[in-house]
Batch of 3 targets.
Target 1
Amino acid sequence: MSSSLSAAADPAVEQQSSSSSSPPPICHLMSLPEELLSHVDSHLSVEDSFNFKLSNARIDNALSHNFHYYDQMHLSDEPEDCRIVDTRGRAPTRSFKADNAPIMLRMLPNLKDVTVIIKDVNMRGRHPQFPARTISDCTPYTPGGYLMLLLGEMPPEQMALRQLSLHIDIMVETLEDVFLQCPTEDLKYAMEKLSNARFNSFVQISICCAQIRPTDQNARNYLLQGMQYALKQSEDFGAKTEFVVEPCEGYVDMTVEKGNVEYTFAFFYYNPTICDPTPEEAPPTIPLITNYYI
């Protein structure tokens, strides 16, 4: 069956029915009681279930409420982690294609919690100034960010959510490789669209730099200036802000809170003595914010 949520029946079924004198498989399914149709459907992905319903009016009627029980969505850039869940155990957990998430937000009437985890954003070869059509094309610098891709122009009042969480990790070897700005696209979308929503929104973005080089200073200062500029703009819009600098740990973060939105962005150097300490290791020198210019 198709991996996209379309409004057409499976062409493979139509071709088989026209090219063979024997009854197509759908005719055999038609003789099944509704309980068995539900059992068959319970083993299908979201996309296959959707197309299964479209294949016949009786099947569509029998499965008319098969998506009503789901109240959690987990979206990731790793396909095996994309699923919808009924936390009360009334319906089986189903997998889905990440790029269908925007459509699913509109077809799951009782969805309460959405968690988005982007574990590995590769900035090389991306064109952040262009809108993204898929999750894999999106970055925190794409216009509107991940929130725009997921929610679009859907009014928040049309969503029955309790919580929306977005977690994004960016890993770079050196700051010389990718000259990064402070990511503010998801922040701007959240401040403009979601701060007065009836549900809570949490956005967490982090940039981890694997190598420390003395030549990082200009790129690092550029990133820090962007953070302070974003905080100043957020304050002008009435948000509560916080800026934390830990020079010895090679860590900086900022927090913005307004209404039901909380946004955090952190930049740090990978520190093996923290992530995987061993007794014989001595703490490395991390020249992060001993000198920076605003």
Target 2
Amino acid sequence: MFRERDDPRLVELLLERPDLAVPDLTGFSQLASRATTRHSVGAAVDQLNAFELWVAGRVSVLSSFEVADLAPAGLDPGDLAAAVERLLTLGLVWGGDGNLRPVRALSATLGSAAALSGPPPSQPPTFVEAGGISPATVTKVAAGSAFEFVRRMDVLVEHCDQQPVRLIRSGGVAQRNVRVVADLLDVRPTMAATYLELARASGLLGISGDTSQELLMPSTVFDSWQTAELADQWVLLAETWLDRHPASGPGWVKRLTLAAFGDPADGLAVPAGEVAAWLDWQRPRRPSRSQQQVVQVLDQASALGVTGLGALASYALPPDATPLSDLLPGRVGHILVQADLTAIAPGPLTAEAAHDIGAMAEIESRGGATVYRFTVASLQRARKLGWSTAEMLQTLEERSQTALPQPLRYLVADLDRPDVARPSHVSAVHQPPSSGSARPVHRAPLRGAVEHAGDPSMSGSLDIEEARAIVVRLRVEELDTGSVGASTATFGDVFDSPLTTLREAVETREVVWCGYVDAAGLRTERLVKVVAVDEGLVEARDATTEDAISLPLRRITAAHILRTGS
């Protein structure tokens, strides 16, 4: 039922229904078999909008139909044709003009009541309260939020480099530590939790290998991320939020929510309530999304810089670093040391500067710039990492565009005094135990192992190149079995299993050569038309006499569809 499709249509089918490709396909009969199971059909039906779902219900009770058969008074034939085309694309309907057929599992999935309901609107709800904003203004505001998000993420992970966050037994972060992060980043605790989740999901934070206690600390991914351009840093975070952050909802919900805003060039700002109604029309079989859930997604999109002023940014979907890079500030390698033992970074620091200052100072961030504070504890930490007092002073003098205050010089010099007490303060965010004494070279920081947890809704997804490769393999395997190009009737799909072949024959209603073992244990052959395959039993009719036949599936040794050559 799919071998007659051209390659682009097959690629589209696999992209829409990636579950059909797992595990690897062995032929078109297996593809048809998977595509007609109730589970797979149900997943495909879940992708229909309200009008397409109504059309699917109408055709599910028909053995065959034409588009003209579906048109009650008042419906646009063009809308009906588009809905049927969508069903064809998803493999819920197959066949040609004048002889379209629904797959048999469609009726079982939707039930008979689906055919009796009245038609819903053929177009999505309109946005009555939506406002228009200058796209340039939207993008500039969103870019500012994107920069702030990247800056805060860098602050968070650098902080965890110096003071790793202890995980509780369930693998999460204690609320006390979430509040510490919220104060550090100057955000609400709910948003602080989002920062921590995204840092883990993107691989910037990993888990220490210490078996006595699990700590969140930077991974080697962070080392590479920190040297990347700001726009590229943002793209990783945005893609992680879209596809690998289940806490904010399935990836398809976020992408569909953002799709409600349409073309970013329109600058459309849509209220959350209208977006929720739009989502309900787009995916009526999916769990209903409350307005509160939509508000959460839109709040996170705004904080991340995906939207600005309630409208979609031009670089946001899909996340694109190229247009964003022109809107972000450049990196700086200097700081401004103040008399109160703080230092201000006037912009995003280079990776080298961030490591240098982060080793010697605590992050104390407020407002639009990163603020560091030098303390006895932070300087002692640098000393344990191998920094000498001379190196500290030289680095600070090179990095600071202001003169170093005398109190800071005294604080550094005091590190050489043997009677300097070790700090007794214990923070809610714990440091890992240190081993060994100060070393003449700077010690490499510990790095955590990256977790591999993604959005379950994205499992088994395909990209277009993978789908094309699968189609090429199907065509090659079809040629290898001799099912294409024969000038006379041949056995197609010789190497397909009987079950996949029989399931395909149920849909295509083609004659099947069937080899089986009868009740006496004798091998026999028969030409049949398969009616149903269910619960280990094959219901069929003899191809010649039309007599009803029931065969236990376990007794069937081979099954091949008889086809005439093209």
Target 3
Amino acid sequence: MGREDRNLKLQISNCALKSAATIQIVGLILILSSPHAIGQVTGIAKTKHNLSVTGPGAIKATTETQICVFCHTPHGANPLQPPLWNREFASGNYVPYTSPSLQASVGQPTSYSKLCLSCHDGTIAIGSVRNLGGQPSVVSGLEAPLPLGATLIGTTLTNDHPISFVFDQALRSADQELVDPALLTGPIKLYPGANPGVIDSVQCTSCHDPHEGRIGKFLRKSPTGQSDNLCLTCHQKPGWVGSTHESDTFFWPKNQTTTQVRDHSCFGCHTPHTVDGAERLLRNAAVGGASAIEETCYLCHKSAAAGGIAQDIQSEFNKISRMPIASYAGHKPVFIPTPPTGLPEGVLLKPGQAAPDPRFTDSKHVECVDCHNPHKVKRTNRTEGMRGIDLSGNTVQNVINDPAPADGAPSAQQYPICLRCHGDTYSTVIGVGTLPSGATPSNKKIEFQTANSAFHPIGGPGRNRSANLNDQLTPNGLNTNSVIKCTDCHNSEAYESTSGRAPSYGSVSTAVGPHGSSYGSIRRARYETTLPGPSFWSSANFNLCFRCHDVNRLTSRRFGEGARSNFDDEGCGGCANDRGKGNLHWFHLVDKVDKARAVCKSCHYNIHSNQEAPNTQYNISGFVTTTPPPSTPSRLVNFHPDVRAIGGRAKPEWEFSTLTKERRCWVQCHAPSNAVMSGFSYRPPSGDLP
């Protein structure tokens, strides 16, 4: 019979025979006479829980020599709790740990946990005991409560591992990431809780042995170890084995000489008693008492000069254009794989919208864990284990961030992560008027539909399969059947000189992904958007476009000089009296740059798609609409708000003849001369349409 079981048996005897003091004395003698109990007394003498004058800690009595008296007494013990407790308990209530992903029901502390909190909540003097020399007393030298420090937990337990909750098969079934509680037989095990005599609850003593200090913090089991540690005794995380954080051999920055990240395991990111305001027991995850999940990630993901050991993400978030990682707190899981009873499995909670259960309401947030699953993430797949939303609105269970999607692939296997905020929820997540122009962002789930007239090929190959476009793309390793990813445009400027796709994973020191950039909208390269644009031609002005579209093919004057563009008025190719302007990209961006001051965005205002073009109407052989029909080769034409309509038209107009295949623009351009493009027609000589 173990010590705890003997104590429990003694507790029951005390309840039945409270008036028989001799029973208490005999019981205590029996306990203390066992070799195990003697070993415990010997062990505690060397720990900070020895509060007697002989104790090794700074907090101790000035004269009292008894060791056990600070917690236990053979007479006059507190009848509410075991084992022969010599202390009172706090009279007020505690604020328990809570989390929307927590399946357990956590209430007020019970049983053994109340014993621990009688010192560690800081409400009662350390030396206050029920019986010292036959009467209540306060031990000399310990008249004050526990002072401020890491061991003072307080009465607000929101930043401490939940305690005093029932851990049974029902909880395991609801959570799905917990071990079988029947296996918890030692050293980590369950204790009685609200139901006296029933061993079914997690208590402080499940993880801590107050009598033994061989492992730091009185822990019953080491928190370090790649495959077997304190946390993994109860928690089993699918995908953890083989993940970066489980297998990384870099030395953990808090202990750079002895412990690798893989060995520090769960304790690298979590701590059972974390700082005020932190969520999910994350280490360092609060600033000024407010949740700041990114601070946990910054422990490793910062500059080498600051002690970082992984890609420096912190510096990315300090750039002029960045995800607002520090602006919004209160992250709640968007996808709940194991909801409480009555909530459907796999429910998608849309940020800012009502949830089907009040415990799962969400708020506006941008956090690292919105894009990365730290328990599953791998260097070769940064989105491993993350759920997303596809173009049909369906849940993608595991988003695969393919380094180079196969040509013709139905999905780039990354955008579902982006659509969690930039899709149907964009109006509540991102908000109205949040662009620098004051405009409201658009719904990318609508814009990237593969049935649209024009779109960048995120969810599937684009509609423009012309030879001219193919010739623009092939020098940079792409073609008209290629699928790209959001991060091919939205990434760190470290990849500005990289042709074609941006890498899916960088070096140890170079961050990759849409964390931050020195260019606006977290773009990986320069892309001038302000009108009037530059007064001189430089390919650097639109370097982002030229990562995929070959600059020579797009801006040479004529086809004979290498141009391959569908925006072309070739005329007779340079013959006498030729009125053709040639490649109209060259004409606007190079030849007339000092007058037109045009930018790519003048005619391709929303570069994602023209499905929701706010400032353009489309005339298709006399049929006028604000949404180009799917079969129309609109080539992403949608005009900048500074471009104005002419001829009584409601909006600037792009015209297409289904008979002659000619195109016209009816616009007054934003230029010093207020040039009017009154229906000049254009059509490339070849390589465009059948």
